[in-house]
Amino acid sequence: MKLPLFSRTISPAKLCLALLAECMLCQSACAQIWHSEVSLSNEKSLRGITIGRSVGSLGLATHYYDEQKWFAGVVADTVRLTDDQTQDVFVNADVGYQWLSEIDWSGQVVYAHYAYPFKHQLRNYKYDELGAAFAFRSQLFFNIAWSPNGRAQTPGYAFQKTSDRVTLSAVWRQTIAPRWTANFGIGASNYLTFRPELYRYAQLGLVYQWQQWQCSLTYLVTDKSTKQNFLSRADNRFLAGIQFEF
């Protein structure tokens, strides 16, 4: 089933239904190499910053993993950029390679493309990213990513010229009881070439896992300069979500 990923007329609801249908078809045909999920959260947040307004966000994702450890997938989330807009779709398509060592480390490299492909006036907001992630005993996670065309941003929502951007993050995850895990993470992102600007964030979260269901509650904190540049989108706040994997 091919999805019309660059159609200007497709609605968020139709996209979500199409993605869900494809996930179910692929899952039944080849369950061992597909991983999919559907999620609902109080907002869409990426590295400490709210994307659009703080309204509910529906997410759908599916990834294919081959026997040679390559993977590819697509993630779609509904967002509302301004109060007077209907909900749009924020899409992330990625491809990468993962590996497991015989000791305690695992990792992956991934190329991702982010875009709003279904609304013409938002297509200039697209950007690309090349990243690497490492995990130690599935408890400590490190991530580094570089974007050649990240969007430097003035206070509010106005985007300026593209800029090289480097992002670093680390997360510690700890089991605290059966089905319960806690996590603590920190991250920083810096626009380099156009307007050097560093923003930082930290998060503390609690996750409950039952079979294929996962519920999470996270408290997110950003520093003063981040709040000055992103205003209410960088407020200290709670993020809540529920996710079903299949």
One letter per element, helices H and strands E, the order comes to HEEEEEEEEEEEEEHE
- Strand proportion: over 45%
Q: What overall geometry do the principal axes of the alpha carbons give?
A: globular
Number of strands: 14
The mean pLDDT is 82
Estimated structural class: mainly beta
Low-confidence stretches: 1-21, 23-31, 154-158
Largest sheet descriptor: 12 strands, antiparallel, barrel
Across the major sheet, the strand order is 1-4-5-6-7-8-9-10-11-12-13-14
Rg (C-alpha, Å): 18 Å
Helix content: 10-25%
Quote the distance from N terminus to C terminus: 18 Å
Per DSSP, the total helix count is: 2
How would you describe this structure in keywords?
246 residues, mainly beta, twelve-stranded antiparallel β-barrel, two-stranded antiparallel ribbon, globular, disordered N terminus
Polypeptide structure, described:
The chain is mainly beta and 246 residues long. The protein has helices at 12-29, 224-230, and strands spanning 34-41, 45-46, 49-50, 57-65, 70-79, 88-100, 105-115, 127-136, 140-153, 159-177, 180-191, 197-210, 213-222, 237-245. The two termini are 18 Å apart.
